[in-house]
C-alpha cells in the first residue's frame, strides 16, 4: 500500500482490524466457530470478518445468520438451486432466500454450527460465497439473457466468470483483492438496453464499436481491420452511499473483450494501493478519481497494464429502452424460448426453490438466471413444451404477466433483517402495490423501488418512483416515512433520479403515490375508467 493508504494513527476501525488479521483468514476457522457457537465468538470475527466468506451476523435476528452467494452473470443450475433450497429448508420458518439487486441470492436463518456442512455442500456443486461482503468486489453482473438474445452484441457469461475467477482465485479466495479500501461493483453490458445499470457501478463495460484503423494502433486494441471492431467503452466511479450518489463517468478508454480481465485487475490494483482509507464515507473509487482527476487515474491504470489504453469509441451501442424480461420470448436458437417470472420483491422459500429447479429441469435445460430486478429467467424451453409449462401452478404466484406495478417492483431487505433499516420495506411494498393496483389502471409499467435507508441498496435513484426510508414527525410522534425520488432513467441515456419530496409518513403514502401515478404516469382511477368506458 502506498501514498493515500494512510498511516496507522489515522486508520479507521475497519482498517485497523483488517491490518490485524485479513478477513480471508477466517476461511480456516469455520470449524472452530461452529464448535464455539456465535455467542462465544470474538465480536470482530463474528460481526465483520465472517463477511469475507459471505456470512453476515444479523443483529436483528442474533444467531440466525445471512449467507450471500456469488452468482456470476446471475446464472445457476437446478442442482445448485436445490442445494440452496435444502439449506434454507432445514431452518423451517426462519429459512428463506432473497434474490438481490446484483443478480445474486442471499440465504437466511443460517446457524453457525451448520457452516462446515453448508460449505461442503456448496463446494460439491461449485457454489461460492467468498469475498461477497465488506471490502471486496461484489457479485459481477452481466446480461441476464446473454447467449439467448438474438440482438445481443456480446455474450457476457464467459467474461464475467473470468473476472470472478481472477478476483477470487476460482472461488477459493484471493488475498490480492481481499483488502480494498471499500466495496467495489463491476458490471458488463452485452445487449443494447443496459440491463445491468452500468452507470451505478464502480467499473462498467458498455458495448461500443470502433472504426478499424488498418494499423496496429498504440494501445491494447491490437491488430485492426478496416471494418468496425467490437469492444467496450469503460465507465468508472459510479456509486451510491448515504452521503453521496454519483453516476459513473467515462474513463475515455475502449477495450477489446480479451483485455477486460486485465483492465479490471489494473483498476483494482490502483484502487487497492491508492484509494483513500482514512474515512469510510469517502473511500469509494470516485473519491480517488476526484482527488487525482480522471486523466491521472487513467495514466495509473495504463502504468499497471503496461500498455496504453485506446481512447473511447465515439458512441456506445446502448440505444434501447431497458427490458424487464418478464414474459415469454423467442431465443436466438430456433425452437427455444426463455420465460421471465416475476418473483415479488425477490423473496423465495424452500418449496419455491425446489419447484423452480424442477421447472428448469423438466421444461428447460436445468439453467436458472436472476435479474437485477430480483426476478428469474428460465431459458431453453422448447416450443413443444411451452404450452404445458404455462399451465404450471407456480406461475400463478410467480407470474409471466403480473400487474404493471408488481412487474417492476424492487425492494431492499429493510427492517425485517437489516439493522441499518429505518423502515420495513418488502412487506410494505407488496401491500402498497396491491392497494394501488386495486384502485388504478395503468397502460405502462411504472418502476417503483423501495430502499430502507440512504445506503440505497434498492436503488431508488434508478426508479421512476424511488422510496427511501427515513424517520419523520407527525403530531409530535416519530413515524416511519419515505423520501420520494423521481426521474431515474434506465437503458438508453440512463441518468439518476433525484429527491423531490421529503419525509412522507408511510401511513399517508398511498394517496401521495396515487396522485403521482395519475399525474405523471397516465394511471386512471378504476371508478373513472368505468364511467368513461
Ligand atoms: Fe447493500 C450494506 C443488502 C445492493 C449499497 N447492503 C448492505 C448490508 C450488507 C448492510 C448490513 O450488513 O445489514 C445489507 C444486508 C441486509 C440483508 O440482510 O440483506 C445490504 N445490498 C443489499 C442487498 C441484499 C439489497 C437487496 O435486497 O437486493 C443487495 C445485495 C447485492 C449483492 O448481491 O451483493 C445490495 N447495496 C446494494 C446496492 C445496489 C447495487 O449494487 O446495484 C448498493 C448501491 C450501489 C453501490 O454500492 O454503489 C448498495 N449496501 C450499500 C451500502 C452503501 C455503500 C457505501 O459506499 O456507503 C451499504 C453500507 C456499507 O457498505 O457500509 C450496504
Ligand atoms: Fe439495509 Fe439500508 Fe441496504 Fe435496505 S438500503 S438493505 S435497509 S442497508
TrEMBL record:
EC number(s) recorded for this UniProt protein: 1.7.7.1
Nitrite/sulphite reductase 4Fe-4S domain residues: 134-307, 406-501
GO molecular function: ferredoxin-nitrite reductase activity
Keyword Transmembrane: no
Domain Nitrite/Sulfite reductase ferredoxin-like residues, every copy: 63-124, 329-390
Keywords associated with the record: 4Fe-4S, Heme, Iron, Iron-sulfur, Metal-binding, Oxidoreductase
Gene3D superfamilies linked: 3.90.480.20, Sulfite Reductase Hemoprotein, domain 1
One matching Pfam family: NIR_SIR
InterPro entries with a match to the protein in the record: NIR_SIR_4Fe-4S, NiRdtase/SiRdtase_haem-b_fer, Nit/Sulf_reduc_fer-like_dom_sf, NO2/SO3_Rdtase_4Fe4S_dom, NO2/SO3_Rdtase_4Fe4S_sf, NO2/SO3_Rdtase_FeS/sirohaem_BS
Enzyme class: oxidoreductase
Record-linked NCBIfam families: PRK09566.1
The family this protein is said to belong to: Belongs to the nitrite and sulfite reductase 4Fe-4S domain family.
Annotated protein name in UniProt: Ferredoxin--nitrite reductase
Taxonomic source organism: Nostoc favosum CHAB5714
UniProt lineage: Bacteria, Bacillati, Cyanobacteriota, Cyanophyceae, Nostocales
Amino acid at each position: 500500500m502506498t501514498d493515500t493508504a494512510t498511516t496507522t494513527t489515522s486508520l479507521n476501525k475497519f482498517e485497523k482490524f483488517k491490518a490485524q488479521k485479513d478477513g480471508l483468514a477466517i476461511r480456516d476457522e469455520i470449524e472452530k466457530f461452529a464448535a464455539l457457537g456465535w455467542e462465544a465468538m470474538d465480536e470482530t470475527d463474528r460481526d465483520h470478518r465472517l463477511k469475507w466468506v459471505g456470512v453476515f451476523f444479523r443483529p436483528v435476528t442474533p444467531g440466525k445468520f445471512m449467507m450471500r452467494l456469488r452468482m456470476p452473470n446471475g446464472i445457476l443450475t437446478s442442482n445448485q438451486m436445490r442445494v440452496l433450497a435444502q439449506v434454507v429448508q432445514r431452518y423451517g420458518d426462519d429459512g428463506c432466500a432473497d434474490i438481490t439487486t446484483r443478480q445474486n441470492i442471499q440465504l437466511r436463518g443460517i446457524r453457525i454450527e451448520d457452516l462446515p456442512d453448508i460449505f461442503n455442500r456448496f463446494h460439491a456443486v461449485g457454489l461460492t460465497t467468498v469475498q461477497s461482503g465488506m471490502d471486496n468486489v461484489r457479485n459481477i453482473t452481466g446480461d441476464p439473457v446473454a447467449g439467448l438474445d438474438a440482438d445481443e452484441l456480446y455474450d457476457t457469461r464467459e467474461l464475467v466468470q473470468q473476472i470472478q475467477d481472477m478476483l477470487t482465485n476460482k472461488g477459493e479466495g484471493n488475498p490480492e483483492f481481499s483488502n480494498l479500501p471499500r466495496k467495489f461493483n463491476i458490471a458488463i453490458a452485452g445487449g443494447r438496453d443496459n440491463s445491468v445499470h452500468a452507470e451505478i457501478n464502480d467499473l462498467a463495460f458498455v458495448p461500443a464499436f470502433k472504426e478499424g484503423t488498418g494499423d496496429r494502433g498504440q494501445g491494447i486494441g491490437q491488430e485492426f481491420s478496416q471494418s468496425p471492431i467490437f469492444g467496450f467503452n469503460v465507465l468508472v466511479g459510479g456509486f451510491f452511499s448515504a452521503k453521496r450518489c454519483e453516476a459513473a463517468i467515462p474513463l475515455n478508454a475502449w477495450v477489446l473483450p480479451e483485455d477486460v480481465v486485465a483492465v479490471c485487475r489494473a483498476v483494482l490494483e490502483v484502487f487497492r494501493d491508492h484509494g483513500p482509507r482514512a474515512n469510510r464515507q469517502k473511500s469509494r473509487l470516485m473519491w480517488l478519481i476526484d482527488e487525482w482527476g480522471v486523466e491521472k487515474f487513467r495514466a495509473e491504470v495504463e502504468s499497471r497494464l503496461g500498455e496504453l489504453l485506446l481512447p473511447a469509441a465515439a458512441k456506445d451501442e446502448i440505444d434501447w429502452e431497458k427490458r424487464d424480461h418478464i414474459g415469454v420470448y423467442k431465443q436466438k436458437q430456433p425452437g427455444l424460448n426463455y420465460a421471465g417470472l416475476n418473483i415479488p420483491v425477490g423473496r423465495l422459500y424452500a418449496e419455491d426453490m425446489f419447484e423452480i429447479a424442477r421447472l428448469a429441469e423438466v421444461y428447460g435445460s436445468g439453467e436458472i438466471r436472476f435479474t437485477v430486478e430480483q426476478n428469474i429467467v428460465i431459458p431453453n424451453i422448447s416450443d413443444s413444451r411451452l404450452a404445458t409449462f404455462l399451465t404450471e401452478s407456480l406461475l400463478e404466484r410467480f407470474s409471466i404477466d403480473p400487474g404493471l406495478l408488481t412487474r417492476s417492483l424492487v425492494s431492499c431487505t429493510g427492517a425485517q433483517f437489516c439493522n441499518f433499516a429505518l423502515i420495513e420495506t418488502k412487506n410494505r411494498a407488496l401491500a402498497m402495490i396491491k392497494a394501488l393496483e386495486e384502485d388504478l389502471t395503468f397502460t405502462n409499467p411504472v418502476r417503483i423501488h423501495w430502499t430502507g435507508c440512504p445506503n440505497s441498496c434498492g436503488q431508488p435513484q434508478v426508479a421512476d418512483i424511488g422510496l427511501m426510508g427515513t424517520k419523520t414527525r407527525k403530531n409530535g410522534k416519530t413515524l416511519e416515512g419515505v423520501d420520494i425520488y423521481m426521474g431515474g432513467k434506465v437503458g438508453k441515456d440512463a441518468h439518476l433520479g433525484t429527491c423531490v419530496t421529503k419525509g412522507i409518513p408511510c401511513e399517508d403514502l398511498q394517496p401521495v403515490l396515487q396522485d403521482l401515478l395519475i399525474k405523471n404516469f397516465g394511471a386512471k382511477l378504476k371508478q373513472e375508467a368505468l364511467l368513461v368506458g
